[in-house]
Amino acid sequence: MGKYILMALASLVIVVAGIFFYLSRPDDARLPETALEGRAPQFTDPRPQIIPTVEIAKPVGWGRDAAPHAANGLKVNRFFAGLDHPRNLLQLPNGDVLVAETNAPPREVGGVTGYFMKKYMGEAGASTPSANRIALLRDSDGDGVADQHFVLLKGLNSPQGMALVGDTLYVANTDSIMAFPYKVGDTQITAKGRKIANIPANAPNYHWGRDLVASADGTKLYVAVGSASNIGEYGEDAEANRAAVLQIDLKAGEAIIFASGLRNPTALAWNPWNGDLWGVVNERDQLGSDLVPDYLTEVQFAAFYGWPWNYWGGYEDKRVEPGRPELREYTHRPDFGLGAHTAPVGLAFSNGAALGAPFDHGAFIGLHGSWNRKPVAGYKVVYVAFDGTGHPQGKPVDLLTGFLNGKGEAQGRPVDELVLKDGSLLVSDDVGGIIWRVSNPAAKPVAAK
After folding, report:
1. Domain containing 89: what range?
2. Which of 104, 112, 225, 396 is the most exposed place for a label (fewest CB within 10 A)?
3. What is the DSSP letter of 406?
């Protein structure tokens, strides 16, 4: 009898091992990255996964003289190095540049997805303690290299977005919007600041970053807030006021949902040619290496973009229960695909840039890079051209590459983009701890409009 029990147990172990092996197999992409880009990306059938595909570009940092590769005719130099996980950038009226040195807050994550995210984000260099500060960089002699570095503000809580309105600097922590009195030219803020709004940051708070832009008249703030989960698996209550762009009326002290159904909106910017709000969004995981395309889109007031029930204007995600098929007809389709799992996290329009054609009328986007696609995607800065009506067209064009070395290791990962007054472009690199500057020696400065 004992012999048969042992045989049964052995068979069970083999079956369980076989199931685990089947579920843990990486899903190889069947489409090239370009098929998932543009106004009409190509879609495959979903290939749901319990255990996500994992393909990590191991962070190794940059050699002493190493640098990314700029597009033909452009050059790149180190504007400043030695920062602690630099992400969002903001230029002040006097030319000083603010940099958020930040990372995810301490958090407990559960479930299969949470386990793998925590494990592999650490391997990708994204789990070091947050510096929780804002640095100020100054290029005092105008040579394209910052020669002065100050700690402007410290003691924050995973800060990311920044906006200057008059004599007030607004900073988006992961859980709040803070206001600090600030005079341009000062190199340190010692005031405690005041909280003007709470931002949802409930556990597990997978998508912790909060970008922030102010309206042209300075009366409103717009805050990008990512979902707490992949596809709403913690319930609708956990997603209250998340997966959305919030609008804060500074005079009335009120906040509303400006747009919803955006799984993880990571960067916002104003379209300089028509004044509309645009953003980049990271879409859902565990549908295979070919789904779902991350995207660039106009963020329209009261528009619903589908998350978690559907994606790209009507493809239903059958994993989400209960389903809401009646929402499909009300779902706004994104404007432009950026490839699956490329992780766009930075956005800046080319207004005022002096990089020359073809980088003279469009948007720069930092693709932070995939951790759950095989082969990896992103890890570069791209440019998307806009037409005369202020809408994207064509395919993304590589502007800054070489963040991956010949072994597929990550020397750095691009984040935010910022057009400087001299027409050059800054790119923050959180893994490398560097701010890169891209310029065109032959181009004449272009006046911002």
Report:
1. 2-439
2. 112
3. T
